[in-house]
Design brief:
The structure is a homotrimer. By secondary structure, chain A is mainly alpha-helical. Chain A is about 70% helix and about 0% strand. Chain A contains five helices and no strands. In chain A, helix 2 runs antiparallel to helix 3, helix 3 runs parallel beside helix 5 and helix 4 runs antiparallel to helix 5. Chains in contact: A-B, A-C, B-C. Chains B and C meet through helix 1, helix 2 and helix 3 of B and helix 1, helix 3 and helix 5 of C.
Chain lengths: ~160, ~160, ~160
């Protein structure tokens, strides 16, 4: 890692080169953000699976079976939709926050660990919320992990750019 | 700095210069992402139009007409809100995915076609969902188009950055 | 185009260097985007506060008190959730729009003022919607401010990249 660090401090001098494949922090961000994007999109498909399993459709044109009426508020469907909404509330701001955090040229080891922990925490969040509900505080802990990491990155960026208020 | 500039104009290729107006792939992304941002924001206005047309307001302070009460679950308003939520679920992750896909320096023709097809598909999705509902599978096809394109980009980025797991 | 390129390379170094800490416009964006990310995440915590204050929980595993049942549609909780959803509908597209607006090398003073006004407007929006509801049109004005700023940025970017349609 020290080789990487010295290497990057040598050639990454120009702060304009943060968002390139030559920056290992950015590559780590790319990989784990991609994992989270795929995870989020799979929530749409999981919702669709639940809708077909329980035959709960919210639109007239979606009634693929006979003798069905539009229906809302099915607990099995709504649980997945709440998990999906929670993803949007937390992961989407995290995407931006961690992206702009990279521009402050953070320590490579710290940044990569934050990306990994936050991403794995959200995968756990989905498992214990939407796939196989388990008792609290498992979901709260998974939720808090990414939240605190995002707050930490926000603090780093805000302190670094406070003079541009 | 001039060294960096001449270097980048030489290869374009220098992965540091992906996010500039000199990169036609990035310019194509800029244009079509802007179109989708405007489309998404217009959903807010379309919701407002439906609320005023059917006099359905969810907050006490929004009751602009006499003898009204707060009301939810109007099918005309909720249809637009479902379409809007579906936009957030799909277009916002796509924005990040396609942005970071550019950093892998993809083939320009392929990337631009993907941006155009995905964007037009979501415009069609809005038309057949919220503006003028038509029978399925029109909406499913429009939905699947952007979803599959986002998955393709995710596969490209993940394979390229797998070693940074 | 070559005129534009030479112009930008003259004053702001090279167009490839927009997204660096050497660009004051980007730094201003970093600061205010961070403020908005934190504001959005605090909506999650505000929702949690309301859920505990009124003992309204949507999941079986969240029933932290005896003799409770899952419950939805509490007006105090739903008001915060509507404000939070409105944030996602407006601030998340704004994050992307203002980020890519920076790549067009806008006038620094104009761009920074837009970032500041839009961000303060959304903080006011949250205060008058979720924290202490006040009569309209306070919320509509706060909402319209960021919306119009985002539309303005969209117009700038679209005109600049129209040839890449």
């Amino acid at each position: 890692m020290s080789a990487t660090a010295s290497n990057s401090s040598k050639m990454m001098t120009s702060p304009g080169d943060m968002f390139t494949l030559e920056n290992p922090v950015f590559c780590c961000y790319l990989f784990w953000s991609t994992v989270l994007v795929v995870k989020m999109l799979l929530m749409s498909l999981l919702t669709a699976v639940q809708r077909f399993r329980y035959k709960i459709f919210p639109n007239q044109e979606d009634l693929f079976f006979k003798n069905l009426e539009v229906q809302f508020d099915d607990p099995n469907v709504e649980r997945v939709r709440r998990a999906h909404r929670n993803d949007m509330e937390n992961i989407l701001p995290y995407f931006l926050m961690s992206l702009i955090y990279i521009s402050t040229n953070p320590n490579a080891d710290v940044a990569c660990i934050l990306f990994r922990v936050a991403s794995v925490a959200r995968i756990i969040h989905t498992l214990v919320y939407a796939v196989y509900p388990v008792p609290q505080p498992s979901r709260i802990l998974a939720f808090a992990t990414m939240l605190l990491i995002t707050f930490y990155m926000a603090a780093v960026v805000a302190l670094r750019t406070l003079s541009f208020i």
